[in-house]
Prior knowledge:
By secondary structure, this protein is α+β, with helices and mostly antiparallel strands. Helices cover about 40% and strands about 15% of the residues.
Amino acid sequence: MALYSEKVMDHFTNPRNVGKIEDADGIGEVGNAQCGDIMKIYIKVKDDIITDVKFNTFGCASAIASSSMATEMIKGQPISKALELSNKAVVEALDGLPPVKVHCSVLAEEAVKAAVKDYYDKNGIFYEPELLAPKGCVDCHGEHH
Ligand code: FES
């Protein structure tokens, strides 16, 4: 059985929205202490809509595929929708990840939230902290890692 779904392989070998937005409205950078992987997501926001998004991920195949998929899922969406994006939704959209790799998708959820937080902070927009709290890893029962 193949370890990775076709979608994971597709998004790893041909990631969407790779790069950097020079005049980004929000930048989220997160890292996984265990594996040392780093993910950076840039967003452009207009009228509460994420009009553009790009990412740079220095990480494993699953982290790259997860960030690629996450950027596709939030592009053109209202911020409120982007904040609803869970790592579980990313994993499902990728047709699954091997259990030991699910944590890589958590990075994508965290990076999106960190980018929105940066946007809110820069613009003095008030937000409920829970809104930006990661929903937690689906395979570790809410325990964050
Ligand atoms: Fe580190 Fe995948 S092993 S994010």
